[in-house]
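[09:14] KT: can someone run the structure on this one? pasting the chain below
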Amino acid sequence: KIRAIHGEEAKQFWLLRRYMRQLHISNLTATKVRRYLEYAWERQSKVVQESEVQLLNLLSEPLRQELKQENFAPHLRCHPFFNFLSSHTVQFVKALQAILMARGDMVFCFQQKADYMYFLASGYLDYSF
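[09:31] RB: done, structure tokens below
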């Protein structure tokens, strides 16, 4: 099974290189994409993904939201406002979503209208004008 997993990884990265060559993607961008995807692939392989646990599809919606709330709770409790509202977070937990960002990704710009709220779970952000 491990050999099959490594075979699938090798195939996917081979397809990625071929895809970027066909599109004439610059070496700089191709390297950034490949490095990020190597990191994301490794991270994904270490953590059981929600999509891999088919049993979760059998959960009722309220129970699914409770599970999601407990998953996000440690990140919300760090903020005094959300810590104060901890018993009411079930009401907005549907809107919460975890995302991965690559080094150098722009999260938001100066004077940009805010469409999202971000909670940093790990890593750091650089702020500049």
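[09:33] KT: thanks! The mean pLDDT is 83.
[09:34] RB: yep, looked fine to me
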